[in-house]
Write a structure and sequence with these properties.
The structure is a homohexamer of 247-residue chains.
Chain A lengths: L14 E5 L7 E7 L2 E10 L13 E8 L11 H4 L4 H15 L4 H4 L3 E10 L4 H21 L12 E9 L2 E4 L3 H4 L4 E8 L4 E7 L7 H26 L11
Helix pairs in contact in A: 2-4, 4-6
């Protein structure tokens, strides 16, 4: 059974990661999952939040935003309204947590890496695209200051994320916006290069799901992530060998 | 193997739900999971958010807050700072989504039910305690306007939530604050009275987890939720028979 | 002549102060004046506002908030709206000023004591209940760091507060919400253990009052405060002997 | 015994009320108490706050602000900081309450009168100068729409306010800034033309006061207000006859 | 004399306007002036600001933002800080005013067109690039609802903008960031297709300028705008014929 | 041809600058252009913004505000709304830039001078009146700390500003509010004592203008500024000799 765009139910949209998308950032990509497009920029800052001062450890923090017209109807600019929505808070916390899970914050040292994920076009799956793209920007940023240093590289493993959902017709991988609006259950999976889970967020606002359905979604999502990990490695080329290198 | 407070690893803390805790609210409880104490108040408002006007459907919305000295060190009052933290946004969105999953919004009609979850004391598991307690307040609030009406009761099923985590020594149910700080993986499960999942949020910020570990956590959490469902039913007494009643 | 709840016009509601209400705070109470219930928590912070840095003096600051459903109809959460109301500002300034009047800020040293007064249920008189309860929490907090130290105890005198009003039928002590809404004149009195006035705030928004009426209100209020002072002393037990102790 | 500026302890500073100070406002004054200067503008708006819609009643609301350099050292502009201070809230609530006490809101009808009190120079007593001046602006604004109408004039009585304090050397009327900083007790009195009290706010942050001292302060303040009422009447000229006119 | 990038002093950088850059917006472009890149999106909203309700006239409003890492060092996200900077306000007011000058707001009817200008990369001249690009997005948006309608097309004339500056070495057109930082005088010119001025903003913060220098800057800028107008026309193709068409 | 108030088209309104208008500020004026009245206060602060720390250079920063009833209909107080409007931001940035252009920030040393421009009455031309008046306050403030010091005086030249507009009947100098509302083009000119331009801001929101019209406006405005410079010199008296003095 196929979908509006001809994909199989367990097939990703066309994924493309354009490296070094921005001139000034220490690392940056444009990541595209079909019509979903997110600019991810990594910035290295030589200070840490107050709770880490003097600890010798670094931090990774993410911010997320939708351009006003990334969406079907215009969404009000958060800067004009004077505050970020709850959805933005929820997503940027997820992105930050996910990326910190593969960073050795001690090895990084007292630096903060900011990951700015700005959605240019939103056709479903923006948070998982952001995580997948931000990982590449993060590796490039750290590589820009690590160079050929013999110290352990602070990125411990690869990391990618994908969404999967239960639609009336079954389990679908990598939902686009129109599919997402008919989904009964929605699950976002963040997984490492070694196949371990980092975040599992399954939500049944319009329905519920069983243990079996959860397992089926995770299986389909894991396959999708395998493909994403390959794309990340190909994008990073030789730099990808540094990930997980222990010095 | 036992814990600091003598519990077995798959044992809940002492849970207590005090019904009608507030004089003015349509429904309210004080819910206690050990030293974690949350006041949950349900308010019925005769209007809906703009996107539902004229739809005939209702809405359920949650707000969450920590009293400044519910925590070990004082946390700055959000009203004084002028904005809610990302953590607050994330939690109140989770509570709202979870409770909407068991409400028949059409049957409710054009009303909003506000669920205010104010944490008086925070010793771990405040968001799951809030969901478990808010469910009871919500049933009472709806009952206060439904009375003996023969129409289908808009609460379709029971709903409770619990946390579970992977500690160095294994999987633990219902983490208190000191356990939570040593957890490698943290999972919150929201489940219905019929054993279906509503939300599965597993997070491995300090580590990762496998499919097997996920399944183990879910099994332990499901057992804990069975106990919570019984406590909810006992607390609600005869009103509990209305849940799921189709008219 | 008696009132809806059977009290005499110069009689307080049932007042109860539950000490050590919270697990983490250095001092805390639940104070109840009839159905009015306020949680007062005292936190000691080892720093002072900028204008006191290096002065050797301490500070006492209060914050006040209504839980959204402490009131008959739900009041919008200030943290969600992004600012505190004028009423909140007015009340928390009053509480802070009142408590500072009995503290020897020099003896306290460069510390700030925060008094968080969170109203769980609001049936009139929340600001005077908050002052009366916060005093006990403040004594306990200072005692927690003073212990058996021979230095002068920084609490110079007892302090309590009560409201009184002119209703069509005469002067009434300790107004509950329904009485408060029919009051022509409203007066809050803050008084010390030695019978001196700290704050007199008489307000005639719906009417005016003469010097004689002012004196009558003050006489009735003073009697009420005598009772409150006794309750504070009984609540504090032996710790009450430290108040006013000069070393 | 005399003061730095040669006044007797029960003597006002030189008070001057310049009527029609602004070109566009319906009523406006510059009020000066010595070096304290406040611009008071009254604006009539043909709508009321939500809680009065359809009630047939009007409203009076006040706003207060210090120009950044009205004070000895520059105070940060509230508009730049994004919020009003607690002190501002407290003062503008006092001004609004005081003026509403002499307005027949039913006779006014569904209108709001805004009173903007902007302090150009602050040498003590700004809130009482604001009330005294705003009263004149308010009468002029109402007169501008009432004209020769035979309906009862909605201003029921005159209203003025003054500060008085207990200094080490005794009770002083109308404190300037340098006196205010040495005051032990500070009292603001708002009184009507018929000698009734509207607001009595006595505050002993740096000390306390007895019933006798309260009475002494009120006696001195009342005399000061008599003088202010005469100045208001002289300023208003024939318009002053309308105050209290019942149609 | 040539510049770092080999341009003549009166030569534009490479300018490129990619039409229909976004999938959902009624009109959108990516405009590039060398390394300066701005996404301009036009949204049509079927309502107008309050001051135009019932007037039959429409409105054009612009918003401007820098992505956090569009700049050399990261600039704090305005949505996270909770307010827009003064620079943002100044620029978005300029963009809005400029575009309204060529729109027949009566012919447009009661609609608002929002122009969102989001800077992806900032290498100088972002506000003039935004105006030049937003014009194309605006024409496309209006064309999307006008189609082949015989009514007058509401865009009266073409509009483009460019910056010019006085550097130590003379007058330079279209300053990049490094040139801009050494400029003594900076001028932004907005001009119509018929060669009329809409905005002239010359600023000499680091120096001053004479009437002759002003005229020289305007002459150079006007030439640059001629080139931009040609690029706009080429980009719009046949749609460009509608601009200025009177029905 | 004359105007409503009898002025010639190239004639200023009556301009008056009252020096030392405020008691506490280091420099202050009330500046009047006809019915437009602005209080300008200069404050010297012994610190600089972060980007200048340790640079040895000073800063000049301006803030602008309309009193709520300075305008024909009341404008909402920015402090109450919690943010400044875009117009306020635009104007205060202009004032700051303009005044910095004649200050030798190195000679000033690490100090910030704040210029608070508060509009008491707004009858057109408030921003140019503010610049013209703030210059005098600024000179007085610097003089208050420079005294007879032999070091170069940090004010390099005089500075004044005026508005000019194209009305249906031609070019008019110094527009009052009613003229301003019928203007097709509006231009603000800031000029130094030596006749150099500092800011030229010509805006044709309701029309456009040619190079010739621009030149005509600048010529008329320059004449107006000559008159303003004379008034500034007369106001400053002997202090005016210090402006431009090189030590």
């Amino acid at each position: 059974m196929t979908r509006a765009d001809g994909r199989a139910t367990n097939e990703l949209r066309k994924v493309k990661i354009t490296r070094n998308y921005l001139k000034y950032a220490e690392g940056s990509v444009l990541v595209e999952f079909g019509d979903t497009k997110v600019i991810c920029a990594a910035t290295i800052e030589e200070k840490v939040p107050p709770f880490l001062k003097g600890s010798g450890e670094g931090w990774v923090s993410a911010e997320y935003s939708l351009l006003p017209r990334s969406t079907q109807s215009r969404n009000v600019r958060e800067a004009a309204r004077g505050k970020q929505t709850g959805r933005t808070h929820e997503i940027q916390r997820l992105i930050g947590r996910a990326l910190r899970s593969v960073i050795d914050l001690k090895a990084l040292g007292e630096k903060t890496i900011w990951l700015d994920c700005d959605v240019v076009q939103a056709d479903g799956g923006t948070r998982t695209a952001a995580i997948t793209g931000a990982f590449v920007a993060l590796v490039d940023a750290i590589n820009s200051i690590w160079g050929e240093s013999p110290k352990p590289f602070p990125v411990k493993d690869f990391l990618a994320a994908i969404s999967v959902g239960i639609l009336p017709a079954g389990v679908y991988l990598d939902l686009c916006y129109s599919e997402d609006s008919t989904a009964i259950v929605d699950l976002n999976l963040v997984m490492t290069g070694s196949g371990q889970f980092v975040e599992v967020q399954g939500t049944g606002e319009k329905g519920t799901f069983s243990q079996e359905q959860l397992n089926e979604m995770l299986a389909v999502a894991s396959q999708g992530i395998e493909v994403l990990l390959d794309i990340q490695k190909e994008t990073l080329g030789p730099v990808s060998w540094k990930v997980g290198r222990e010095g």
